[in-house]
Specification:
Elements: H1 2-37, E1 54-55, E2 63-67, E3 70-78, E4 81-85, E5 93-97, E6 105-109, E7 112-120, E8 123-127, E9 135-136, E10 146-151, E11 158-163, E12 168-172, E13 177-181, E14 188-193, E15 199-203, E16 207-211, E17 219-220, E18 230-235, E19 242-246, E20 249-253, E21 261-262, E22 270-275, E23 283-287, E24 291-295
Antiparallel strand pairs: 1-24, 2-3, 3-4, 4-5, 6-7, 7-8, 8-9, 10-11, 11-12, 12-13, 14-15, 15-16, 16-17, 18-19, 19-20, 20-21, 22-23, 23-24
Protein backbone atom coordinates (compact mmCIF):
# COMPACT_ATOMS: atom_id res chain seq x y z
CA UNK A 1 0.00 0.00 0.00
CA UNK A 2 2.76 2.39 0.95
CA UNK A 3 4.64 1.68 -2.30
CA UNK A 4 1.43 2.23 -4.28
CA UNK A 5 0.75 5.55 -2.60
CA UNK A 6 4.31 6.74 -3.31
CA UNK A 7 3.98 5.74 -6.96
CA UNK A 8 0.64 7.58 -7.24
CA UNK A 9 2.09 10.61 -5.52
CA UNK A 10 5.03 10.67 -7.95
CA UNK A 11 2.70 10.38 -10.95
CA UNK A 12 0.45 13.17 -9.59
CA UNK A 13 3.44 15.39 -8.96
CA UNK A 14 4.80 14.71 -12.42
CA UNK A 15 1.45 15.56 -14.00
CA UNK A 16 1.26 18.82 -12.07
CA UNK A 17 4.77 19.76 -13.14
CA UNK A 18 3.90 19.05 -16.76
CA UNK A 19 0.80 21.25 -16.54
CA UNK A 20 2.69 24.09 -14.88
CA UNK A 21 5.49 23.81 -17.46
CA UNK A 22 2.96 24.05 -20.29
CA UNK A 23 1.30 27.09 -18.75
CA UNK A 24 4.69 28.74 -18.23
CA UNK A 25 5.62 28.13 -21.87
CA UNK A 26 2.34 29.67 -23.05
CA UNK A 27 2.86 32.75 -20.84
CA UNK A 28 6.41 33.21 -22.13
CA UNK A 29 5.15 32.90 -25.70
CA UNK A 30 2.48 35.55 -25.13
CA UNK A 31 5.04 37.92 -23.62
CA UNK A 32 7.42 37.43 -26.56
CA UNK A 33 4.66 38.10 -29.09
CA UNK A 34 3.64 41.23 -27.19
CA UNK A 35 7.20 42.57 -27.09
CA UNK A 36 7.71 41.90 -30.78
CA UNK A 37 4.51 43.60 -31.89
CA UNK A 38 4.07 46.56 -29.56
CA UNK A 39 6.38 48.92 -31.49
CA UNK A 40 9.16 51.22 -30.50
CA UNK A 41 7.37 54.27 -29.06
CA UNK A 42 5.44 55.12 -25.93
CA UNK A 43 1.93 54.93 -27.38
CA UNK A 44 0.88 52.30 -24.86
CA UNK A 45 -1.91 50.03 -26.02
CA UNK A 46 -2.05 51.80 -29.40
CA UNK A 47 1.61 51.29 -30.40
CA UNK A 48 2.42 49.47 -33.63
CA UNK A 49 5.18 46.94 -34.26
CA UNK A 50 6.77 49.68 -36.38
CA UNK A 51 8.91 52.28 -34.66
CA UNK A 52 7.39 55.74 -34.86
CA UNK A 53 9.32 58.79 -36.08
CA UNK A 54 7.83 61.09 -33.44
CA UNK A 55 5.41 61.07 -30.52
CA UNK A 56 3.13 64.07 -29.95
CA UNK A 57 2.68 65.06 -26.32
CA UNK A 58 -0.66 66.81 -26.81
CA UNK A 59 -3.89 65.68 -25.15
CA UNK A 60 -5.39 64.52 -28.46
CA UNK A 61 -4.56 64.19 -32.17
CA UNK A 62 -6.85 65.30 -34.98
CA UNK A 63 -5.37 66.43 -38.28
CA UNK A 64 -2.32 66.34 -40.54
CA UNK A 65 -1.87 68.47 -43.67
CA UNK A 66 1.02 68.67 -46.15
CA UNK A 67 1.82 71.93 -47.89
CA UNK A 68 0.82 71.66 -51.57
CA UNK A 69 4.15 73.06 -52.80
CA UNK A 70 6.63 71.78 -50.20
CA UNK A 71 6.40 68.20 -48.97
CA UNK A 72 8.72 68.94 -46.05
CA UNK A 73 6.18 71.31 -44.47
CA UNK A 74 3.38 69.59 -42.54
CA UNK A 75 0.82 70.93 -40.08
CA UNK A 76 -0.54 68.95 -37.12
CA UNK A 77 -3.75 69.96 -35.35
CA UNK A 78 -5.21 69.11 -31.96
CA UNK A 79 -7.79 70.52 -29.55
CA UNK A 80 -5.31 73.06 -28.22
CA UNK A 81 -3.68 74.38 -31.34
CA UNK A 82 -1.31 73.72 -34.23
CA UNK A 83 2.24 72.47 -34.68
CA UNK A 84 4.44 72.69 -37.78
CA UNK A 85 7.16 70.44 -39.17
CA UNK A 86 9.64 71.67 -41.77
CA UNK A 87 11.46 68.35 -42.15
CA UNK A 88 8.72 65.94 -43.24
CA UNK A 89 7.58 65.10 -39.72
CA UNK A 90 10.87 64.44 -37.97
CA UNK A 91 10.64 67.46 -35.66
CA UNK A 92 7.86 69.89 -34.72
CA UNK A 93 7.48 73.43 -33.41
CA UNK A 94 4.45 75.05 -31.81
CA UNK A 95 2.50 77.54 -33.93
CA UNK A 96 -0.57 77.88 -31.70
CA UNK A 97 -0.83 76.70 -28.09
CA UNK A 98 -4.20 77.90 -26.87
CA UNK A 99 -6.96 75.89 -25.14
CA UNK A 100 -10.07 75.90 -27.30
CA UNK A 101 -8.24 76.61 -30.58
CA UNK A 102 -9.48 73.32 -31.92
CA UNK A 103 -7.80 72.28 -35.18
CA UNK A 104 -9.88 69.20 -35.95
CA UNK A 105 -9.39 70.01 -39.63
CA UNK A 106 -6.42 71.68 -41.32
CA UNK A 107 -7.02 72.13 -45.05
CA UNK A 108 -4.76 73.81 -47.60
CA UNK A 109 -6.34 75.58 -50.57
CA UNK A 110 -4.95 73.68 -53.61
CA UNK A 111 -5.26 76.82 -55.78
CA UNK A 112 -3.58 79.14 -53.26
CA UNK A 113 -0.89 77.09 -51.48
CA UNK A 114 -0.27 79.79 -48.88
CA UNK A 115 -3.88 79.62 -47.68
CA UNK A 116 -4.89 77.16 -44.95
CA UNK A 117 -8.22 76.69 -43.17
CA UNK A 118 -8.67 75.56 -39.56
CA UNK A 119 -12.07 74.18 -38.53
CA UNK A 120 -13.26 72.42 -35.38
CA UNK A 121 -15.42 72.88 -32.29
CA UNK A 122 -16.67 76.48 -32.66
CA UNK A 123 -13.50 77.24 -34.62
CA UNK A 124 -13.28 78.56 -38.19
CA UNK A 125 -10.05 80.39 -39.08
CA UNK A 126 -7.97 81.11 -42.15
CA UNK A 127 -4.26 81.67 -42.64
CA UNK A 128 -2.74 83.32 -45.70
CA UNK A 129 0.90 82.79 -44.70
CA UNK A 130 1.10 78.98 -44.71
CA UNK A 131 -0.25 78.56 -41.20
CA UNK A 132 1.94 80.96 -39.26
CA UNK A 133 -0.81 83.47 -38.38
CA UNK A 134 -4.60 83.04 -38.36
CA UNK A 135 -7.73 85.18 -38.65
CA UNK A 136 -11.32 84.28 -37.83
CA UNK A 137 -13.63 83.81 -40.83
CA UNK A 138 -17.09 85.37 -40.71
CA UNK A 139 -19.65 83.17 -42.46
CA UNK A 140 -23.34 82.33 -42.69
CA UNK A 141 -22.84 78.70 -41.67
CA UNK A 142 -25.72 77.59 -39.39
CA UNK A 143 -23.26 76.16 -36.87
CA UNK A 144 -19.53 76.10 -36.21
CA UNK A 145 -19.11 72.63 -34.74
CA UNK A 146 -17.11 71.61 -37.81
CA UNK A 147 -15.87 68.04 -37.59
CA UNK A 148 -15.70 67.77 -41.40
CA UNK A 149 -14.10 70.31 -43.73
CA UNK A 150 -12.47 70.00 -47.17
CA UNK A 151 -11.37 71.84 -50.31
CA UNK A 152 -12.14 71.06 -53.94
CA UNK A 153 -9.25 70.27 -56.31
CA UNK A 154 -11.49 71.01 -59.29
CA UNK A 155 -13.10 74.39 -58.56
CA UNK A 156 -11.01 77.29 -57.31
CA UNK A 157 -12.16 78.53 -53.89
CA UNK A 158 -14.75 75.78 -53.37
CA UNK A 159 -15.01 74.39 -49.85
CA UNK A 160 -17.12 71.72 -48.15
CA UNK A 161 -18.27 71.69 -44.52
CA UNK A 162 -20.56 69.56 -42.38
CA UNK A 163 -21.66 71.53 -39.31
CA UNK A 164 -22.92 68.98 -36.78
CA UNK A 165 -26.70 68.46 -37.19
CA UNK A 166 -26.89 70.79 -40.22
CA UNK A 167 -25.91 68.65 -43.22
CA UNK A 168 -23.42 69.17 -46.04
CA UNK A 169 -22.75 72.76 -47.10
CA UNK A 170 -20.68 74.14 -49.98
CA UNK A 171 -19.08 77.56 -50.48
CA UNK A 172 -17.14 79.39 -53.13
CA UNK A 173 -14.81 81.49 -51.05
CA UNK A 174 -15.55 80.33 -47.53
CA UNK A 175 -17.90 83.06 -46.33
CA UNK A 176 -21.25 82.44 -48.02
CA UNK A 177 -22.47 78.85 -47.79
CA UNK A 178 -25.44 76.93 -49.18
CA UNK A 179 -26.99 73.66 -48.08
CA UNK A 180 -26.42 70.72 -50.44
CA UNK A 181 -28.07 67.94 -48.43
CA UNK A 182 -29.33 67.37 -44.90
CA UNK A 183 -29.18 63.60 -45.49
CA UNK A 184 -25.74 63.21 -43.99
CA UNK A 185 -25.15 60.73 -41.14
CA UNK A 186 -23.90 61.67 -37.71
CA UNK A 187 -20.23 61.22 -36.93
CA UNK A 188 -18.67 62.48 -40.16
CA UNK A 189 -14.99 63.36 -39.89
CA UNK A 190 -13.50 63.95 -43.36
CA UNK A 191 -14.38 64.66 -46.98
CA UNK A 192 -12.40 64.19 -50.21
CA UNK A 193 -13.36 65.35 -53.71
CA UNK A 194 -11.84 63.35 -56.58
CA UNK A 195 -10.90 64.73 -59.98
CA UNK A 196 -14.14 63.43 -61.52
CA UNK A 197 -16.24 65.22 -58.89
CA UNK A 198 -16.95 62.11 -56.78
CA UNK A 199 -17.13 62.84 -53.06
CA UNK A 200 -15.91 60.45 -50.36
CA UNK A 201 -17.11 61.02 -46.82
CA UNK A 202 -15.60 59.41 -43.73
CA UNK A 203 -18.31 58.72 -41.16
CA UNK A 204 -16.96 57.00 -38.06
CA UNK A 205 -19.59 54.30 -37.43
CA UNK A 206 -21.27 54.55 -40.84
CA UNK A 207 -18.12 53.70 -42.78
CA UNK A 208 -17.09 55.41 -46.01
CA UNK A 209 -19.83 57.02 -48.08
CA UNK A 210 -19.68 57.88 -51.78
CA UNK A 211 -21.61 60.49 -53.76
CA UNK A 212 -21.57 60.97 -57.52
CA UNK A 213 -24.14 63.77 -57.59
CA UNK A 214 -22.32 66.47 -55.64
CA UNK A 215 -23.36 65.23 -52.20
CA UNK A 216 -27.13 64.95 -52.64
CA UNK A 217 -27.20 61.16 -52.20
CA UNK A 218 -24.74 58.69 -50.68
CA UNK A 219 -23.92 54.97 -50.91
CA UNK A 220 -21.53 52.77 -48.95
CA UNK A 221 -17.99 52.48 -50.35
CA UNK A 222 -15.93 50.37 -47.96
CA UNK A 223 -15.51 47.02 -49.79
CA UNK A 224 -12.49 45.31 -48.23
CA UNK A 225 -12.83 47.04 -44.86
CA UNK A 226 -15.00 44.38 -43.29
CA UNK A 227 -15.24 45.75 -39.76
CA UNK A 228 -14.36 48.64 -37.49
CA UNK A 229 -14.80 52.40 -37.39
CA UNK A 230 -13.44 54.91 -39.94
CA UNK A 231 -11.66 57.91 -38.44
CA UNK A 232 -10.36 59.69 -41.52
CA UNK A 233 -10.26 59.50 -45.32
CA UNK A 234 -7.55 61.36 -47.23
CA UNK A 235 -5.87 61.07 -50.59
CA UNK A 236 -4.92 62.07 -54.09
CA UNK A 237 -7.74 63.59 -56.19
CA UNK A 238 -6.73 61.32 -59.10
CA UNK A 239 -8.01 58.44 -56.97
CA UNK A 240 -4.97 56.19 -57.27
CA UNK A 241 -3.85 56.77 -53.68
CA UNK A 242 -6.73 57.09 -51.23
CA UNK A 243 -6.20 56.18 -47.57
CA UNK A 244 -8.56 55.39 -44.69
CA UNK A 245 -7.57 55.50 -41.04
CA UNK A 246 -9.44 52.90 -38.98
CA UNK A 247 -9.39 51.51 -35.46
CA UNK A 248 -7.19 48.70 -36.75
CA UNK A 249 -4.80 50.47 -39.12
CA UNK A 250 -4.49 52.16 -42.50
CA UNK A 251 -6.25 50.93 -45.65
CA UNK A 252 -5.58 52.06 -49.22
CA UNK A 253 -7.62 52.25 -52.41
CA UNK A 254 -6.33 52.59 -55.98
CA UNK A 255 -9.75 52.88 -57.65
CA UNK A 256 -11.15 56.04 -56.14
CA UNK A 257 -12.32 54.51 -52.88
CA UNK A 258 -14.46 51.72 -54.29
CA UNK A 259 -12.28 48.85 -53.03
CA UNK A 260 -9.83 48.80 -50.14
CA UNK A 261 -6.86 46.71 -49.02
CA UNK A 262 -4.90 46.88 -45.74
CA UNK A 263 -1.46 48.47 -45.67
CA UNK A 264 1.39 47.08 -43.59
CA UNK A 265 0.36 49.41 -40.75
CA UNK A 266 -2.48 47.19 -39.61
CA UNK A 267 -2.00 46.87 -35.87
CA UNK A 268 -2.82 50.29 -34.44
CA UNK A 269 -5.71 52.74 -34.10
CA UNK A 270 -5.21 55.56 -36.65
CA UNK A 271 -6.97 58.89 -36.08
CA UNK A 272 -5.33 61.23 -38.61
CA UNK A 273 -3.60 60.94 -41.98
CA UNK A 274 -1.77 63.46 -44.15
CA UNK A 275 -0.93 62.84 -47.83
CA UNK A 276 1.75 64.68 -49.79
CA UNK A 277 0.01 66.27 -52.83
CA UNK A 278 3.26 66.24 -54.82
CA UNK A 279 3.83 62.54 -54.12
CA UNK A 280 0.64 60.81 -52.89
CA UNK A 281 2.56 57.59 -52.18
CA UNK A 282 4.06 59.51 -49.25
CA UNK A 283 1.89 59.83 -46.16
CA UNK A 284 1.98 60.40 -42.42
CA UNK A 285 -0.37 58.73 -39.95
CA UNK A 286 -0.83 59.33 -36.24
CA UNK A 287 -2.38 56.84 -33.87
CA UNK A 288 -4.51 57.32 -30.77
CA UNK A 289 -1.41 57.27 -28.60
CA UNK A 290 0.19 60.20 -30.47
CA UNK A 291 2.74 58.10 -32.34
CA UNK A 292 3.53 59.35 -35.84
CA UNK A 293 4.38 56.92 -38.66
CA UNK A 294 5.65 57.65 -42.18
CA UNK A 295 5.44 55.71 -45.43
CA UNK A 296 7.05 56.62 -48.75
CA UNK A 297 5.61 53.76 -50.80
CA UNK A 298 1.85 53.95 -50.35
CA UNK A 299 1.81 52.01 -47.10
CA UNK A 300 3.88 48.96 -48.05
CA UNK A 301 6.54 49.90 -45.49
CA UNK A 302 6.52 52.27 -42.52
CA UNK A 303 8.94 53.98 -40.21
Amino acid sequence: MTSGRKSLTRRTWGLRMAVWSSLLAVCIGVIIVFLLTRGGGDGGDFASRFASIHTFKTADYHSLAFSPNDGDIVLFGHHGGVQMSQDNGDSWSVVIDEPGRDAMNLVYDPFAPGTVYMAGHDVYYRSDDRGRTWNKVDSNLPGLDLHTFGASPNHEGRLYAVPVDYGLHVSDGGEQWRLVSDQVPQGTNSIVELSDGTLLLGATDQGILRSEDGGKTWTQSRAGIDYGAIYTVKGDPAGAHIYAGTDHGVYTSSDGGQNWTPTALGDTWIVAIGVNPKDPAELLAVNRGGELYRSSDGGDTWE
